[in-house]
Amino acid sequence: MAEAYIVEALRTAGGKRKGALSGVHPADLGAVVLNALVDRSGIDPAAVEDVILGCVTQGGEQSFAFGRNVVLASKLPDSVPAVTIDRQCGSSQQALHFAAQAVMSGTQDLVIAAGVESMTRVPMGSNFNLHAQAGIGEGPWPASIRERYGVDEFSQYHGGQAIADKYGFSREDMDAYALESHRKAAAAIAAGAFEREIVPVDTPDGRFAQDEGVRANGSMEALAGLKTLTEGGTITAGNASQMTDGASAVLVANEEALKRFDLRPLARIHNLTVTAGDPVIMLEEPIAATERALRRAGLGLDEIDLFEVNEAFASIPMAWLKVLGADPGKLNVHGGAIALGHPLGASGTKLMATLVHGLRARGKRYGLQAMCEGGGIANVTIVEAL
C-alpha cells in the first residue's frame, strides 16, 4: 500500500477566550497556518489538491462553507477546493485521516488537513438552539434517541464526571494532574519547545506567538478554591480543558508528491484508527481505540515513545493511563489542553504538530495521538518520525 507522509505541521499559539486572538476573524486565523505551510514547505500553492478543515461550531463566522472561506482568505489560489468536517473534538484529526487516505489511495497527491475554532467569536454550543429561535423542531437528539439511551441530552461534562466516578479519581487527584499539565507546559515554553511548531499571528493588538492560558505559578491551593461544576462532583474549570481560539494545519503527501516537489517529510503516518462506543459515558472510547490501533499496527504500548491524549477533562488521560498501564513519563510531555487550551476543531492537527516536533526534537521514533469525541467516538493516529 502507498504511504502517507507529514511534510509540515504547524499551529497558532492558543488564545484564551476573549483574549489575544479574539480580534481575528476565524477565516483569517485559518489562513495564517495555510500560508505558513506553503512558505515553510516551499510548495507551489496551486499544487495543493484539497483542504480538509475541521470545525465544530459551524455557525456565524464559521459557517457557509467555512473551509472554502479559509482558502479564499489565504494565498492559496481559487483552484484549491476545501471541505469542512465535524467529528467534534477530533474534527481536524479526522481531517488528517481523510487526507492520508486520499494520498494513500493515489486519488490525490498533496492535501492539507487543518482545523480552526474561535471559541470567542463563535461560542461553543451557539448552533444548538437554532430550532428554538426558529420555533420549530426539537434539537439535535430526537425522542427516539433520548428514549433509547434514557437521557435528555448527551453531555461531555457528564461523561467526564462519570469516568472520574468509575475509576475513583478524587478532586485532589484531578487537580494534581491539572497542575502538572501547567508545570510541563510552562517548562516547555521556557525551553523554547514550541518555537518550531507555532506560527505567529498579527492581531489588532500586536503579534501573538505564545500560548496564553498556561499558569506558570499555579498551585493546589488555587485549584482547590474553584467550584465544582456540580454539587459533589470533581470537575472544575481548573481540571478541565480551556476554551481557546486557535488554528492548526498539516501538509500530507504521498511518495509521488515527495519526488515531484522535492519534499522532505517529517514523519510517516503508520496507523489510522477510529472507533465508537457508549455515547453516554462518551469520552472513555480512546482506551478501546488505542488498543485497536496498536493491534492493527503490530506495535506494543512500550514501543511508543510519546503519547498525546487530549485533556478534555483530567479524568480522560488519567483513565487512559490507568487501564492501559502506559508510562506517564511519555504522556503529554509538553502539557495538554488543561494548560495549553482546546480549540475544538483545531485540536487534532494541533496535537499532531506538537507530537511530530516533539518526537524529532528527542530523536524518538513512534508517537500515538488519541482524542475523545462527542457521541462516544475516538480517533487514534500513530506516526513514525523521520
UniProtKB/TrEMBL annotation:
Membrane-spanning parts: none
Enzyme Commission number(s): 2.3.1.16
InterPro entries attached to this UniProt entry: Thiolase (IPR002155), Thiolase-like (IPR016039), Thiolase_C (IPR020617), Thiolase_CS (IPR020613), Thiolase_N (IPR020616)
Record's keyword annotation contains Transferase: yes
Record GO terms (molecular function): acetyl-CoA C-acyltransferase activity
Broadest EC class assigned to this enzyme: transferase
Keyword Transferase among record annotations: yes
Active site, renumbered: 89, 342, 372
Domain Thiolase C-terminal: 264-384
Keywords: Acyltransferase, Transferase
Ranges for domain Thiolase N-terminal: 5-256
Family note: Belongs to the thiolase-like superfamily. Thiolase family.
Matches recorded under PANTHER family: ACETYL-COA C-ACYLTRANSFERASE, BLR7806 PROTEIN
Listed name of the protein: Acetyl-CoA C-acyltransferase
Species name: Sphingobium fuliginis ATCC 27551
